[in-house]
Design a protein that fits this description.
The protein is mainly beta and 297 residues long. It has 3 helices and 23 strands. The strands form 5 sheets. Strands 14, 16, 17, 18, 20, 22 and 23 form a 7-stranded antiparallel β-sheet that branches. The longest helix has 19 residues. The radius of gyration is 21 Å and the shape is globular. About 3% of the residues have low confidence. Bound molecules: zinc ion. Zinc ion binds next to strand 14.
Length: 297
């Protein structure tokens, strides 16, 4: 009994300190509470935010590291706002602010901030041998790759102010529970290249690739590095990408359903063999895609 009481007291103290399970809970003015899923995180992770008591303050806006980040409501009447922040896999380690602001009835600006410590991820370095053109592209290939990267950046810069997803994000292959390689620093044919921003799932060519969630198809085309590539916009800056496909079953502008077949596993683009490369981008941050299945925004 006594031990139980001590345990309860400890839990209560942790709760008071706002540190239970590493979560952050901050009491702000006017009955507003800011909750973050973690106060300490690492590169390539997701942070879930909840703003409680927001019903009376429809004008609450949020910023992560000084940049506006979207908030949404789960249904019309609820007083809770939700946000999702991606920690880019190359975000400089340090302490950053997650801030909300709004105006009171007198027009005075109110703000409330929580600090988030970002730590370096432990990503192994791997050395791979790929076709020469993918490490030393000729000028024409180089130009093509640069144009494609520009196009992708413009897509990821776009935050659609609408929620397309519904229910849970799921893995893009049936009967597969996990994938790997996220964040690996890469040396290709002896030359350093950008880190691996997706999760690789080894699978035979022709295996059905499923949309992780509902959303609008924004890319379905053959790209120099990622081969046949599908990108789906799930709204609020959340995008999933499916690369190296042998076939694509959707077109840009179409809505994809969660779990719908959007293509087949292949070995197109810069690969060492057939697999699915699955990427997640949240407001331009390249994040470990498995996290969205584990955490669910
Ligand atoms: Zn990959």
């Amino acid at each position: 009994m006594r031990r139980m009481r001590t345990a309860l007291a400890t839990i209560f103290l942790l709760f008071i300190a706002g540190q239970a399970n590493g979560q952050v809970r901050k009491s702000c003015e006017q009955g507003v509470t800011l909750k973050l899923s973690a106060g300490v995180t690492t590169q390539g992770n997701l942070l879930l935010a909840e703003i409680l008591g927001a019903g009376a303050h429809p004008g609450i806006t949020a910023e992560w590291d000084g940049k506006a980040t979207p908030l949404w409501r789960e249904g019309e009447k609820t007083g809770t706002l939700h946000g999702l922040t991606g920690i880019d896999l190359e975000k400089a380690p340090g302490v950053y602010a997650w801030t909300i602001s709004w105006r009171d009835d007198a027009g005075k600006q109110l703000t409330c901030s929580a600090s988030v410590t970002v730590r370096a991820g432990k990503f192994p370095t791997e050395r791979l041998k790929v076709e020469k053109q993918f490490v030393q592209p000729d000028p024409e290939q180089q130009k093509r790759a640069e144009e494609e990267q520009k196009k992708m950046r413009a897509i990821y810069e776009t935050v659609t102010p609408q929620r397309y997803w519904e229910g849970k994000f799921r893995l893009p292959l049936k009967d597969v529970t996990t994938g790997g390689n996220f964040g690996r620093r890469r040396i290709l044919n002896g030359e350093a290249r950008s880190p691996h921003a997706g999760v690789d799932f080894p699978a035979p060519s022709g295996t059905a690739v499923l949309a992780s969630q509902c959303g609008k198809v924004v890319i379905a085309e053959e790209l120099f590095y990622s081969g046949n590539t599908v990108v789906i916009d799930h709204g609020y800056g959340i995008y999933t990408m499916y690369a190296h496909l042998s076939e694509m079953g959707v077109k840009p502008g179409e809505m994809a359903e969660a779990g719908e077949e959007i293509g087949k596993v292949g070995a197109t683009g810069r690969v060492t063999g057939p697999h699915l490369h699955w990427g997640l981008t949240v407001e331009r941050a390249r994040v470990n895609a498995l996290r969205i299945v584990q955490q669910q925004p």
